[in-house]
TrEMBL record:
Catalytic function, reaction form: (S)-2-hydroxyglutarate + A = 2-oxoglutarate + AH2
UniProt name for this protein: L-2-hydroxyglutarate dehydrogenase, mitochondrial
Domain of life from the UniProt record: Eukaryota
Signal peptide annotation: none
Amino acid sequence: MIRNLSSASCIVFSATVPKPLTCVMRHAHSSTYDVAVVGGGIVGLASARELILRHPTLSFVLLEKEKELAMHQSGHNSGVIHSGIYYTPGSLKARLCVKGATMAYEYLDKQGLPYKRCGKLVVAVEREEIPRLKALYERGQENGVRDLTLIDSKGIQEREPFCRGLMALDSPYTGIVDWRQVSLSYGKDFQDAGGTVVTEYEASDIAMVKESPAGGTEGLKYPIAIRGSKGKEVRCRYLLTCGGLYSDRISQISGCSPEPRIVPFRGDYLVLKPEKHYLVKGNIYPVPDPKFPFLGVHFTPRMDGSIWLGPNAVLAFKREGYKMYDFDIRDVTDALCFRGLHKLVLKNILYGVGEMYRGVFIGAQVKILQKFIPELSLQDVLRGPAGVRAQALDKEGNLVDDFVFDGGVGDVGSRVLHVRNAPSPAATSSLAIAQMVADEVERRFTL
Ligand SMILES: Cc1cc2nc3c(=O)[nH]c(=O)nc-3n(C[C@H](O)[C@H](O)[C@H](O)COP(=O)(O)OP(=O)(O)OC[C@H]3O[C@@H](n4cnc5c(N)ncnc54)[C@H](O)[C@@H]3O)c2cc1C
């Protein structure tokens, strides 16, 4: 629990098969560092990379609780390089996505990492969706998304011969990539620049200490102690956390507010049988529901040649639980006792039940997908993998769509920074987010 950490300040900014990293070190050879980063997902890795490139003379460590990096959201997602169409013009999310996509393509080219710019169609299948599709086109233009055009049903068939629709937004700039592979590449850059990666280190306590590490002679140079669940301790001058599905709990152990709370939503994908791959060429998306822009099943080709359909979104009974029956008593109690979730459920009960129904009865999911590709049948699909989204919720049951940085006040406020919410598509935006996080670290800390 918290020691000498006074109450928190919270700032809201509006706004495959991957290669394992062979050079990951399992044990820190030194336990003191200038900067520690907790969380080896794409946000933590990109931020650690950016910081060490800006400050090559400082010592850095990245602590990750799993055996390998990027095992959660960054390794369980749709693998799309989004172009930034959906987000409110001028918002941080829109700017970071558009900039992040450009930076991602540049990075992938420079590193020689594989990706495909296979494009995306957002397809209106009902007449009443057309005004929303046109508004989306305007929005994309305002956001500076490249090469957007509106196409008619003939244009749709030229791009996707098996897709039916009245009108579509064509975004050829959208691509696909294996985001876990990209995350591991950021980790390699970090290590090549001298950073240390320690896996199987679960930060379970963050405290401000008053004495030097045993045998140390440097006084209070490293006053932040990050205690691991296996009894080890890492000391640092400054701490940044990027805990994904656990970002609220990590913030709480250093004395920050429990809100915004992370509520895990699992998304189950279906996969298209290989003999039916000819049905889909690029990404095919529905016109988003303005209430839940991140929902809506889509067709997504993968870098390994497979094609994923979905996902739905249902409340998960376990953070980082990828199977329908995965259950964790603390996660369930936390979620069920949270007033914000009660409000969200009450406001959207029908929607939630529909998502659960489609998760169990895949025929219902296929029925929705058939609106886009009528030739698709239940026999063409299999149950596929799942991902769990860290959805930040406030007390009133509102989805928190902005970036949330949280620190402490007093001594700790000048030494600890939590990235509590890095909303999707944080993989696409990761390099731009990393610049923003590094700017914030430099603004708060005297590195
Ligand atoms: C189903 C789904 C589909 C998506 N599709 C896309 C997409 O197509 N394109 C896109 O750009 N984005 C997509 N996203 C969003 C994107 O994947 C996430 O925004 C991004 O991966 C978040 O990265 P992160 O580093 O914040 O979290 P994570 O990847 O979850 O990383 C957090 C890390 O912190 C570690 N950790 C947690 N607690 C501790 C602790 N106490 N001590 C040490 N380590 C700890 C975890 O083990 C984990 O490795 C999708 C997300 C989901 C769920």
